[in-house]
Amino acid sequence: MKIVKSQDGTKVFFALDGRLDTVTAPELQNVLIPAFDDAKSVTLDFVGVAYVSSAGLRVLLLGEKTAKSKNCSMILINVSQEIKDIFEMTGFSDILKIA
Amino acid sequence: MKKSSIKRKFLFIVLGMSLVSLTTFCAVAFRGSFTMRSKVQQLSARLGEFAISNSNLFLEQEAHDKLMTKAKSRSKIIDERLTAIEKDVLYFSRYIAKLYQKADRMPPMPIQFSTSDNYGKLAMQLRSANGKEDYPRIRQEAHLLGNITTAFESNGDDMEVLTVSLFLGTESGFMIVYGPFSSDQHQKFDPRDRPWYTGAKEAGESFWTAPYEDAASGKLVITCAHPFYGVDGEFKGVVGIDVVIDDLNSEIVDIDVGRHGYAFIIDSEQTLISSREFIKREGENEDDNGNGANKRRSAYWKGNPEYNETLKKVAAGETGFEKVNTQMGEKFIAYSQIPATGWSVVIVQPVSEIMELVTENSAAIEEMTQETLSVINSMIRVMLINFMFVLILAIVVIIYLAEKMSDKIIKPILTLEKCFERIASGELDTRVEIKTGDEIERLGGSVNSMAQKLKEYIENLQQVTAEKERIDVELNVATKIQANMLPSVFPPFPHHTEFDIYAAMLPAREVGGDFYDFFFVDKNTLAILVADVSGKGVPAALFMVIAKTLIRNTALSGKRPEVVFGTVNNMLYENNDAGMFVTAFMGYLNIKTGKFTYTNAGHTPPILRSGGCSKLLKMRPGLILAAFESKLYDQDEIMLQRGDELFLYTDGITEAMNKEKTLFGNERMLEAANNNPDVPLKDLTLLMKHEIDKFAEGAEQSDDITMLALRYIGPPAAGENDTMEKLSVEASLENLETALDFIAKNLEAANCQPKQRNQITIAIEEIFVNIAHYAYHPGVGEVTISVSTEEGEITIEFEDCGKPYNPLEKEDPDITEGVEEREMGGLGIFMVKNLMDAIEYRRNENKNLLTLRKKL
Question: What is the predicted ipTM?
C-alpha cells in the first residue's frame, strides 16, 4: 500500500492507494496513530482503495478511538460504494466519519 | 612468400617447352653418337678382317719370295764353295800326276810321321798302313809326293772355315795329311779302305762322300776326293779335302730361318747331307742305326705324306715352294738344287710363325678399335656433362628470364586483383590505371566502368531498400494488429468444460484477408466464424477488419446467424466501392444442448467428424457477403453429440497447390481428417498443415490458410466436478498473496463480477489469516484451499490439520456499539458470514473443514 502524508498546521492528510488488508494494515497503523499526537484533524483519502479487510477495519477503529481520546477528528473521503457496503455491514458507517 | 599462381604456370610452361626441346636435341645428338660408335665398331671389325686376309696373302707371298730367295742363294753359295773345293782337288790331282812324270828331277821331300807334338798346329804329317815299319818300302814314293807340301800349304793358308784338312792316300798304303789333328796314334792308318778312297777310285773323277765321322777330328765331315794317276796312266792314289758339315750348316745353310724354322741339304736319295737337326729332329726319335761314318739318315718323315711328297720333288732336283700340312702344323717349304753335287737346299718354316704377324696385326687393329671406341665413349661422356651443364644453365637462365617476363605480364593483373579487392571491400571509387595496350588494359577499363555502375546501382538499391524497409515496418505493425484482432489465447474459456476450441490463421503474405472469431453471444451460446476476404494484402486486411467488427457487433445484438449475415451483407454492400466481397461460415453452438445452428455465405463447407467418420457439413450456400444487396440467407441446424468435432477452414487448404498445379482438394483433406482421429485440436490443425506442406513439395503457400476446430464435450454429468482446483500451502501470512492470487485466477475464470470478486476475496483473506494466526499456534502447518464452480455457485473449502476450531461458534460483535465500546476482534468471521451465502464447519479425521458458498 502506498501512503502519502501531507500536513497543514494541525491538519494531517493521508492519501492511500492500494489494498488495505492484513499485510498492509500495520503500515497504515504505524503512521496514522502517531499523527494524532500533534494534529487536530486527520483526513484519509480512500480514492485509491478498493479493498478493506477486517485488519483494515481494525486500524480504522483504532484510529477513531485514538482520535476520540485525543479530542481529534478523523475523516474518510472518496470512499467507494463497495467499501461503504462493508462499513455498513459491520456497523462502521455509524462509527466513522465519512464525507 | 606467396607466389602468384599465373606466374608459376607461365614459368612451368616456358621451362617445360625449353626442356622438352633441349632434351629432344640432346636425345638426337646422343643417338647420333651411339650410332657412330656402333658404326666405328663394325668398320673396325671389317677392317680387321680385311687386314688379316690381305696380310695372309701378302705374307704368304712374302714368305714365298723370302724363303725362295734364301733357298736359291744358299744353294748357289754352297754350289760355288763346293765347286771351288772340287777345282782345288782337281788341281791337286793334276799336280801329283806331274810329280810322278818328273820323278827323276824332283828333290826328295821327307815328311814327318804324325806326332802328338804338333797337335793343334797346321802341319804336314805322314801316316802309313803299318806305321813307321813301312817307311823303307814307301820312302822313295813318300819323298816324291812330299813335294806337294808347297801346294798344300799355299792352299791351307787361305783355308776356308769349312775345310779341316787336305790329304792324299796312295795305292801303296800311305797317306800325307795337312791339318791340325796330329797324333801319335794316327801314324798307323790305311787310307785304302776309306769311303772317299774307294769312292774316288771307283768313280775315276771328282767324288763327294756321304757324311761320316772324321777319324782324326771326330767331326762329321764330307769329303771331296779325286784319283791321281802315274806316268803310264796307272792308278796311284786319291787326293781329297774334308768339309765339316757343322760348319756348312752353321755358316751357310741353317741361318736366318726364324725361331721355329730350319734348313738342311739332302741328296738325290733323300739322304740328309747337312742339318742342324741331323741327329735330333722334331717329332722323331733318334735313329740308332750306327755311329760315326755310318750315320746316314733319310729325310723321310713318317706319317706326313704331303711333306714326303715334297721331298720327292726335292730329290728329283726341282726348285720350288710349297705349303704343306704336317703333324706339327702347316709348314712352308722352299727348296733349290745345288748343281755341283745334285744335292738340294731345303728350308722349312712354320706357317704360324709368319702368320704371327698377322695375328699381331689384327690384335693391333682390335686394340686401335678399342682405343677409338674409348675415345668416342669419353667424347659422349664429355658431351653428357656438357649437356648437363647447359641444361642447368638453361634452367637458371629460363627461370630468370621467365620471372622477369612474367612480372611484366602479371604486374597489371596483380594491380587489377588489388583493385578488385578494394572494390569488393566497398571502396567503389577505386579506379585502375593500366597502360599495357592489350586485353588487360581493356579489362581495366571494364573494371572501372563496372565499379561506376556498381556504385550507381548500390545507391539506387539503398533508396529502394529504405523505402521497402519502411513499408515492411508498417506491414509488420499491420500484421501484429491483425493478429491481435484474432483471439489467440487457448483455451479461451478455461472454465467452460462443455467444449474445446482451437484456431489458427497462417497468412500467405504479411497481412491476409482470412479471419476467424468466436465469442459468446449469450451465456450458453458460442458463436464461431471463419471468413475469407477477396484479394490479398493491405486492402483485404482492412476489409476484414470492417467485416469482422460488423459481424461480431451484429451477432452480439442477439440476432440469429442468417439475420446477422443479411444485416452485415447490406451494410458492407452500401460502402463497397472497391467491389470486395467476403465468404463466411458462421454457427451458434448451444453448449448445454449441442444444438448447432449455422449459415453459409458462399464459403467452403466445414468438416463434421462424428463417430470416427468425417463428412462435409453441406447446405445450400447463400450469397457471398458485400457483393449484392440481399437479406436472404438460409440457416440449418444439427445436434452435436458428445465428442463430435467441427473443422472450419478457408479455401487456402483445398486450393493449396503442388508444383504440378494439382489442388489439395476435399478428398485429401477428408482423408487427413479421417487418418487422425482423437488427436487434440491443436495437433489436428498442425497435422493438416503438415499434410499440405508434404503435398506442396516445397511450392510456396499461395493463399492464407485458416482453420478453426471445435469439439463438443457437453455439460458435465451430475456429481461430476471437473472444475475443482486445489492449492496447498503453509498457513502463514507470507503465503496470503499466493492464496489470494489463486482465488483471483479462479474467480476470473468463473466470469465473476468485480463486486462479488472483491467480497469473496475479503472472505478468503479473513479465513486464511485466521487459520494462519490460530490453527497451528505457535507452530506452523499446511492449509489446502479447494475452489469449484458449479451451476452458478462457487464453493471454497479450507482444510487444515490444526487445533479444532469452529469459527461459527464465535459470537458476532455488536455492531451497534459506539466507538469507545467497540471490540477490536471478531470482525473477520462476522464479515465472512455476511459476505458469503453459506458457511459450514466440519471436524473430520482430525481436520478442520470450512466450506464457503456463494452464488455468482
Answer: 0.87
